[in-house]
Design a protein that fits this description.
The chain is α+β, with helices and mostly antiparallel strands. It is about 35% helix and about 15% strand. The protein has three domains: about 30 residues, no CATH class; about 170 residues, 3-Layer(aba) Sandwich (Creatine Amidinohydrolase, Chain A, domain 1); about 250 residues, Creatine Amidinohydrolase, CATH 3.90.230. The protein has a six-stranded mixed beta sheet with strand order 8-7-6-3-9-10, with helices on both faces. It is globular, with a radius of gyration of 25 Å. The structure holds manganese (II) ion. Manganese (II) ion binds next to loops. This is Intermediate cleavage peptidase Icp55. InterPro entries: Aminopep_P_N (IPR007865), Creatin/AminoP/Spt16_N (IPR029149), Creatinase/aminopeptidase-like (IPR036005), Pept_M24 (IPR000994), Peptidase_M24B_aminopep-P_CS (IPR001131), X-Pro_dipept-like (IPR052433). GO terms for molecular function: manganese ion binding; metalloaminopeptidase activity.
Length: about 475
């Protein structure tokens, strides 16, 4: 169906009359002429509703998160979190910016070069002292680089009173640093652990290095992962939304034929974004045939062969929250008997493991992984593949059953995988099988790679499959493939 958006675009081309176009659109809200360094409900009302600082999350929720992290801190603790660094492809060409998850979780701020400090001082009337720093809002920056939120707009947007320009941050870090006993610092994962400060914004890097010489440093993850692991209602809504959009995209691409892995990758990304996701949550795996034997195959540049299967591991990101889905389906008009038998075996294991994702089961992800290997061994025996426990875990199914998801694809990775699952955690369940081309294994199974992965909301008694819209039953996939079209 032709949407109103395209209709109005057509009118604009025809008449060039903005007022006419607006009068034709029933939902147009008046936009503020103020500028901000990120989408706001004032300037981008098609993205955010009044009160929302980021999609589905209000400024008040961000304030509550800061209160909660301060409550976990001891007297004399200083928490330093900073924006992610802008990363460069080459020369002046930068990669699409992505905010640091811990900083985003506490602020909802999407600008680089921003800093949040929280100092816990017992002898103060307030529970904690907070200082927030944003890049200066200058006409030069706004002309050349993009809009900036700045101090005055920042107070309205973030509901934070103490905001200063970021060049003042070194002085406040010095002052808070002298008063603190230990520092919790937000090292960005992906930077060499040897140099945890390397990823700090230029404006504060030297000062943080100085402080590192004087005070004990610990990871901010120690404070933030225990909070981030339990998702709020609005976070669950974001994760569900990302899952719905991504699940629909899978349904669409399963009903289509592709010549090349890259084309399938492009169509998925297109559907994630057109559905409302900001981006792909990670570089997807689009692995035709034996390419799937490589667990994290991401070159995605091969051509599909007749009667192979394609293993796809891809998901979209919405409001910072990601979804993680893997599906495997035939590139031809349906499963061969060998493909179907192996697929059904993995699917049976996956469904049984999903059923274990409840807080009442008292099971941990590590324990569910153990169960998955036992279940897979049994399923494979039924179809004539006999492997020892170590062959299953080291050769056929060498990765773990899953991980948490949230603001990161491997969310809260510092959590202990042996602790029992808790209500409102979100985990993936993703058993797989990767049969080497090796005569140790039956000829009919060699070279087949399958992974089936859903994003699961842990309930007390019942798990909720967020990614249920992505087809996974044999019959469903068979039907989509039989009716597939170019
Ligand atoms: Mn995964």
């Amino acid at each position: 169906m032709l949407s109103l958006r395209y209709l109005s675009h057509g009118f604009r081309k025809l008449f060039g009359n903005k007022e006419l176009v607006h009068s034709l659109q029933p939902n147009v809200r008046t936009k503020s002429s103020k500028t901000f360094g990120q989408p706001t409900s004032f300037t981008r009302p098609h993205i955010l509703r009044p009160g929302e600082l980021t999609p589905k999350v209000n400024a008040d929720e961000y304030r509550a998160r800061r209160d909660n992290v301060a409550a976990l801190m001891q007297e004399g603790d200083l928490l330093i979190t900073t924006s992610a660094a802008v990363k460069y492809m080459c020369g002046a060409a930068f990669y699409e910016y992505h905010q640091d998850p811990n900083f985003y979780y506490l602020t909802g701020c999407l600008e680089p070069d921003s800093i949040l400090l929280i100092l816990k001082e017992k002898d103060m009337f307030e529970n904690y002292k907070l200082a927030f720093f944003l890049p200066p809002k200058t006409s030069y920056a706004e002309k050349w680089e993009g809009f900036r939120t700045g101090i005055e707009n920042g107070k309205i947007l973030f509901h934070i009173e103490n905001i200063q320009e970021n060049w003042e941050a070194p002085f406040v870090i010095e002052e808070f640093g002298n008063r603190c006993k230990r520092v919790f610092y937000n090292t960005q994962r992906g930077y060499p652990y040897k140099d945890p400060v390397a990823s700090s914004p230029d404006v504060v890097r030297d000062k943080i290095r100085e402080l590192q010489e004087k005070k004990p440093f610990r990871s901010a993850n120690e404070l933030l992962h225990p909070l981030r692991t339990i998702k709020s209602e609005s976070e669950i809504a974001c994760l569900q939304h990302a899952a719905n959009i991504s699940g629909d995209a899978y349904k669409e691409v399963m009903a289509k034929d592709f010549y090349e892995e890259n084309q399938l990758a492009a169509e998925l990304e297109y559907r994630f974004k057109m559905g409302g996701c900001q981006r792909s949550a990670y570089v997807p795996v689009i692995a035709g045939g034996r390419n799937g034997l490589c667990i994290h195959y991401t070159s995605n540049d091969d051509a599909f062969q007749q009667n192979d299967m394609v293993l796809v591991d891809a998901g979209g990101e919405y409001g910072g929250y990601v979804t993680d889905i893997s599906r495997t389906w035939p590139t031809g008009r349906g499963f061969t008997p060998a493909q179907r038998d192996l697929y059904q075996a993995v699917l049976n294991v996956q469904k049984k493991c999903i059923d274990l994702c409840t807080s009442s089961s008292g099971l941990s992800l590590a324990r569910i992984h153990y169960e998955s290997a036992v279940l897979l061994k049994e399923e494979l025996k039924q179809i004539g593949i006999y492997g020892s426990k170590s062959e299953i875990e080291d050769v056929l199914y060498p990765h773990s059953i899953g991980h948490e998801i949230g603001l990161e694809i491997h969310d809260c990775f510092s959590n202990n995988s042996f602790s029992p699952l808790k209500k409102n955690q979100i985990v993936t369940i993703e058993p797989g099988i990767y049969v080497p081309v090796n005569n140790r294994w039956p000829k009919w199974a060699q070279g087949i790679a399958i992974r089936i992965e859903d994003s699961i909301l842990v309930g007390e008694q019942e798990p909720i499959v967020l990614t249920k819209d992505a087809p996974k039953e044999v019959k469903e996939i068979q039907n989509l493939r039989e009716s597939a079209a170019w």
